[in-house]
Amino acid sequence: MDVRQSFVQDWHATTVLAVKRYGKIVMASDGQVTYGPTVMKASARKVRRIGDGKVLAGFAGAVADAMTLLERFENKYREWNGNLLKAAVELAKDWRLDRALRRLEAMLIVADSEHLLVLSGTGEVIQPDEDIAAIGSGGPYALAAARALMRNTDYDARKIVEEAMKIASEICIYTNDNFVIEEL
Fold first, then answer.
1. In this structure, what DSSP letter does residue 12 have?
2. Rounded to whole angstroms, how far apart are CA atoms 57 and 28?
3. More confident of the two residues 38 and 116
4. Which residues are catalytic?
5. Cβ distance 56 to 116 under 8 Å?
6. First CA to last CA across the chain, in angstroms?
7. 43 labeled binding residue
8. Any binding-site annotation on 169?
């Protein structure tokens, strides 16, 4: 084994969850950034408003990569005059075809009043069957909790997000309970 490999640590970061219900879209992320067995930061902000406040965007993955993608998405959104779906598809095309972009290790969730989408580096633009999307290390836990809450309660989007993120933070060691929540 290469000695350098024994010192290589994995960055683990983030749970991002978005829920659309009763005409509202709510997106949240936790604040934890973990490097190997160490919590490096507990208050990172991984959810943002973009597009003059009309779009929510959340990212998971390498921060520099995610910020690059977020910036490029926002540029595409402006280029396509606020058409979220078209901007997402165009970014996914670039992401898949551009040699430098292909190496970026991140995922995005973007949402406006009409669409909730997950964008991946493999060129996928996914509109979930249910109005719930989650990414990151704790994404599967948050997604499962949100689906159960959506199917079995009358909670609004914010309450579902808050409860599902709390559950994810109790299960995933890479997720804390320092949430940033944005709502449209």
1. E
2. 10
3. 116
4. 14
5. no
6. 50
7. no
8. yes
User: Distance (Å, rounded) from C-alpha 40 to C-alpha 21?
Assistant: 34
Q: Kindly state the average pLDDT of the residues 122-128.
A: 89
Q: How large is the average pLDDT for residues 119-137?
A: 91
pLDDT(143) > 90: yes
The mean per-residue pLDDT over the stretch 100-126 comes to 86
Residue whose tokens read 């165009």: 90
Which of helix, strand or coil describes residue 162?
A: helix
CA distances to 15, 35, 102, 116, 160 from 167, in Å: 11, 22, 33, 22, 11
CATH superfamily of 11-183: Aminohydrolase, N-terminal nucleophile (Ntn) domain (3.60.20.10)
β-bridge partners, 135? 16
18 within 8 A of 60, measured Cβ to Cβ: no
* Bridge partner list, 16: 29, 135
Percent helix, strand and coil across the chain, each to the nearest 5? 40, 30, 35
Q: Do 15 and 30 form a contact (C-beta atoms < 8 A)?
A: yes
Domain boundaries along the sequence of the chain? 11-183
pLDDT digits over 155-176, tens only? 999 999 999 999 999 999 999 9
Measure the CA–CA gap between 113 and 54, rounded to whole angstroms. Answer: 8
